[in-house]
Write a structure and sequence with these properties.
alpha+beta, Butyryl-Coa Dehydrogenase, subunit A, domain 1, 15% strand, Butyryl-CoA Dehydrogenase, subunit A, domain 2, 3 domains, binds acetoacetyl-coenzyme A, 4-stranded mixed beta sheet, Butyryl-CoA Dehydrogenase, subunit A, domain 3, globular
Length: 384
């Protein structure tokens, strides 16, 4: 298949606008968010002021109506400045995608509008302590009780837990039949019986809280189910097809920030009487970093174009982009630390933070081993 994507003037303008905003108002918060492990409220405020906090929400719900490629560009540029902050638009897309794909109109209007306005964020609750890669083995239950569902269970690794007002929660409504017994619900932070664990102490993305979410006899009105009972697992997987593209974009952005830092340092730092960028050994390293970044970005945008069109090969491309870009980001950020030498190993420069932040992109929204399972299944089905 040939036509991948082409950046329009609008896409280029979006990139310039986000970059300008992030250089001025997001990058300056990145080191402190990492050091203090605090949610970067100033970044959220800046992103909200320019409608970059949840750009994918359609105009009919008051959103900016960005297409999947523009949304990827926003997330990439925010991640270039601060990976933790990029989880604001990324997780808003992850949390709301089940509603966009499968929710009814009333539920969409009720819950997407506040997110578009920047009054609420939306998280996604799939994983559990004993159900990570094997998402279909979840045990959180939703039992029907008259005109309510009663939710009980624990979700783990929930990004932006506690700061989000809304949560898409996947739960078993018909036990014993596997993925076909799973349904999706919108849960509010203020629903009685919802509570949160302590923030996880992590290697990176320290400015984005990751916590357990507990559901203790949470009574959920019937109209808060997303789609028909039993369709939740398929909705969860379809969501990830789209949002693995956004994690790829995040990885591309982290890698781009690291390459920027490496290029600047290599031209400033002098050894043996000249800038280290003049040494061929350094040039080969920088060239490899650029090559990997370019390949990752092209694959990510090709996947974003498929996400926008809803192509049949999106499942493959989403997994491939996420897997390739996150592996590239890990290599590029590690090489950036190497270019900066001893300085790269310190917190006086951003490379070590970027290296720590890159690691999670190989793990969340499905480990890269799971991505390979997904890709292989698509290849064997002849989809590609
Ligand atoms: N689109 C539509 N339907 C899909 C689908 C897709 N992409 N993938 C699977 N399904 C459907 C299947 O068609 C199947 O239905 P049928 O029986 O009717 O065909 C059903 O769902 C079950 O599918 P599988 O048999 O493929 O399921 P499986 O148990 O073998 O699991 C898996 C497959 C790929 C390993 C899946 O469990 C998976 O993706 N695991 C990783 C989970 C993950 O990514 N978790 C991250 C959570 S988000 C996060 O990281 C937190 C955060 O906040 C950032």
């Amino acid at each position: 298949m040939f036509d991948l994507y082409q950046l329009s003037e609008d896409h280029i303008a979006v990139r310039e606008a986000v970059r300008e905003l992030c250089d001025a108002k997001v990058a300056p918060n990145a080191a402190a968010a990492d050091e203090n492990g605090e949610f970067p409220q100033a970044s959220y405020d800046a992103l909200r002021s320019s409608d970059f906090h949840a750009p994918h929400i359609p105009a009919e719900f008051g959103g900016a109506g960005a297409d999947a490629l523009a949304t990827a560009i926003v997330i990439e540029e925010v991640a270039r400045a601060c990976a933790s902050s990029s989880l604001i638009p990324a997780v808003n897309k992850l949390g709301t995608m089940p509603l966009l794909l499968s929710g009814d109109q009333a539920l969409k209007e009720r819950y997407l509008t506040p997110v578009a306005r920047g009054e609420a964020m939306f998280s996604y609750c799939l994983s559990e302590p004993e159900a990570g890669s094997d998402a279909g083995s979840m045990t959180t239950r939703a039992d029907r009780d008259g005109d309510h569902w009663i939710l009980n269970g624990v979700k783990r690794w929930i990004t932006n837990a506690g700061v989000s007002e809304y949560y898409t929660v996947f739960a078993v409504t018909t036990p014993g039949i596997g993925p076909k017994g799973i349904s999706a619900f919108v849960i509010e932070k203020s629903d009685p019986g919802v509570s949160f664990g302590a923030p996880e102490r992590k290697l990176g993305i320290k400015g984005s809280p990751t916590r357990e979410v507990y559901f203790d006899n949470v009574r959920v009105p019937l109209d808060r189910i997303i789609g028909e009972p039993g369709t939740g697992f398929a909705t969860a997987m379809k969501t990830l097809d789209h949002t693995r593209v956004t994690i790829a974009a995040q990885a591309v952005g982290i890698a781009a920030g690291a390459l920027d830092a490496a290029l600047a340092y290599a031209q400033e730092r002098r050894q043996f009487g000249k800038p280290i960028a003049d040494f061929q050994g350094m040039q080969f390293l920088l060239a490899d970093m650029g090559m990997k970044l370019t390949a990752a970005r092209e694959l990510t945008y090709a996947a974003a174009a498929r996400s926008e069109r809803g192509d049949a090969d999106l499942t493959y491309f989403g997994a491939a982009a996420k897997c390739f870009a996150s592996d590239a980001a890990m290599e590029i950020t590690t090489d950036a630390v190497q270019v900066l030498g001893g300085y790269g190993y310190t917190k006086d420069f951003p490379a070590e933070r970027m290296m720590r932040d890159a690691k999670i992109t190989q793990i969340y929204e499905g480990t890269n081993q799971v991505q390979r399972i997904v890709m292989a299944r698509q290849l064997l089905k002849g989809v590609i």
